[in-house]
Amino acid sequence: MDKDKDDDKKGGCRKRDPKEAPMLRSAVHYTVYKLSEDFMQRSSMTLPKETVLAVADHIFLNMEQIGRDLEFFSKHARRMKVTPDDVKLLFRNAPDVGTHLDAVLRQREKEKRQARPLPAPKAKKQIGSRKVANTSRDAETNSRPASPGPRKEQENDAMDDDDF
């Protein structure tokens, strides 16, 4: 059996596709380069390309480590997905990040609640001159067939008439 598949079954970390690493690294380098260009335009400073490259490499390696840590936290909790609690644990020594994460999560929950349609009101039945909400108990009583008790008595009476 393949070693990567064995690691996945034992709860180990998923191995990254070796083809993805250069593409991810170049995407990080490009983003850092664009940010550094923007910084140099706003300030009258110039940054050597070696410095920008070193910063980009550091960011890439740091993000790899963060990803591994988050994966280990979720595996330790016997979960397959990383949760916001894992991110809070990762940044436990940076309280500003935890506060910002809480604010973002509260905002997302608020948006979800606003986007969710309101539940339809329960059907009401009219009793006398007032309307009453149809409860599940009322629905059960209305859906039951009529009791067979009085009907049997009528059949017995009819049989008595036929006997004479």
Describe the protein.
Keywords: DNA damage, DNA repair, DNA-binding. It comes from Hypsibius exemplaris. GO terms for molecular function: chromatin binding; DNA binding; protein heterodimerization activity. Pfam families: CENP-S. Belongs to the TAF9 family. CENP-S/MHF1 subfamily. There is one protein chain. The protein is mainly alpha-helical and 164 residues long. The protein has a domain at 23-65. Helices cover 66% and strands 5% of the residues. It has seven helices and two strands. The chain has helices at 3-9, 20-42, 49-76, 84-90, 95-115, 136-143, 149-163; strands at residues 124-127, 130-133. The protein has a two-stranded antiparallel sheet. A hairpin with a 2-residue loop joins strand 1 (124-127) and strand 2 (130-133). Helix 2 (20-42) packs across helix 3 and helix 3 (49-76) packs across helix 4 (84-90). The longest helix has 28 residues, at 49-76. The protein is elongated, with a radius of gyration of 34 Å. The model is unreliable at 1-12 (pLDDT under 50).
